[in-house]
Amino acid sequence: MATKYTLFYKRTLSARFSQRIYQPIYTLTRALTFKVTRQNPELIPPAKPTPHEFKPLSDFDNYEGLRFQVPIIQFYRKNPSVEADPVEVIRKAIAKALVSYYPFAGRLREHAARKLAVECTGEGVMFIEADADVALEQFGDELKPPVPCLEELLYDVPGSGGIINAPLLLIQVTRLKCGGFIFSLRFNHTMSDGAGIAQFVSAVGELARGAGFPSTPPVWERHLLNMSCTHHEHKDIPDIIKTLTTLNKVVHRSFSFGTNQISALRSHLPPHLRHCTTTFEIVTACLWRCRTIALSLHPDEEVGILWAMDSRRRFNPPIPDGYYGNCCIYPTATTTSEILSKNPYHYAVELLRKAKLEAMADPMIIKRLSRFSFVGGYAVSDARHLGFEDVDFGWGKAVYGGVAKGNIGFVRELLSLYVPCKNDKGENGIVVSIYLPENAMEVFTKELEMLVEKNNDNNPMLA
């Protein structure tokens, strides 16, 4: 089948943000037109027979907020020394990887109390072969979410997007006219977290390069993350979704934080926090405080922030190497709108650090987003260090590798996703997606600008 897709876009820069924070805005000015030709979707089963059995998911996997699909995308340049077809190489490598990762070739079933188990049927994962008459260079130098034309580069095969009784992975490999290619994958989040799916894709890369088996053998062992108490993570979700429909028009903007912005934010911290606070904590505290001010909540309104933190090394004993299920804990900080808004910026940092220590002390406690109302609840997810850009199928590392869009999850307005970026000097930075009501977005932007642009003459870290 052939699809012709036209992308119209223009990047406009706020004059005040031109050197600091930019906001991508797409308008009808310039067209990138190309055609994608897809072969019929197929199922790739494991290369060898695998056990037919039921494997229950863990309590971490069964968290209701993980019932959604996550798109990943990786761009590769042409390698003149490689003559092989990337589609055929990757197709065979996937089949080999599924011998070890055979649960991915099965289908999820739902049992009593909405508990999930994978039936290892060996049916396989969904795979699409495609060609696009576009060169990698035409996508521009800044490949990052939201990736243009994602619906063409990762086609949503009808019936493949469900959580239950559907393929657990959807993969598309698209050849480019320049000789490069794009590897796109969509995974069911209940089966793996970001680190887990990155482990699988890395295994495919190793097998594509000729390895006989993955260097890190996969570990199932989901029982290690089960708890004795009963949880009802999903009981408040209908109320949250209902609340979403009462909002004013919600708009989306993305903001970047580079070396200068991080240094400016760090300059607001007192000496005892300035050198021990992480970049993640600096940015997250800033976003939480600015968002709260922008929403103009009642002074006594509870506001909370939650984030995912990989806990594989935080258990005693540690979770085994190779574990590819969900293994994140969720530190949660709460206060009131007035306290957060009127206290200095570093107060938010201290709340985050305190919540992190509490969660690390008892990683079996799953804090959850559904405890917050929409206006007062906020979540962030750091996708900067998952390692997709390091995956090599034989053509070298990816030009870009990571999440394909920022609005993932069933309540995208509650979530900000952190993805890596580089500026024109090659310096590493962070791009953050924000969803807010239109009037609140303007206030948020001004508050953020004041924090980032305020100079502190006593701070040697500032340029």
In short:
The protein is α+β, with helices and mostly antiparallel strands and 463 residues long. It is 24% helix and 25% strand.
Polypeptide structure, described:
42% of the residues are buried. It is globular and about 60 Å long. The chain has ten helices and 19 strands. The longest helix has 17 residues, at 279-295. Strands 1, 2, 3, 5, 8, 9, 10 and 17 form an eight-stranded mixed β-sheet that branches. Strands 11-19-18-16-12-15 form a six-stranded mixed β-sheet. The N and C termini lie far apart (54 Å). Residues 1-30, 229-246, 369-374 and 455-463 have low confidence and may be disordered. The protein is of the alpha+beta class and 463 residues long.
Secondary structure elements and pairings:
Blueprint: E1 2-9, E2 30-38, E3 42-44, E4 54-56, E5 69-76, H1 86-100, E6 107-110, E7 116-119, E8 125-132, H2 150-153, E9 169-176, E10 181-188, H3 194-208, H4 237-244, E11 250-257, H5 259-266, H6 271-274, H7 279-295, E12 302-307, E13 309-310, E14 328-329, E15 332-336, H8 337-342, H9 345-361, E16 377-382, E17 400-403, E18 415-422, E19 428-437, H10 438-453
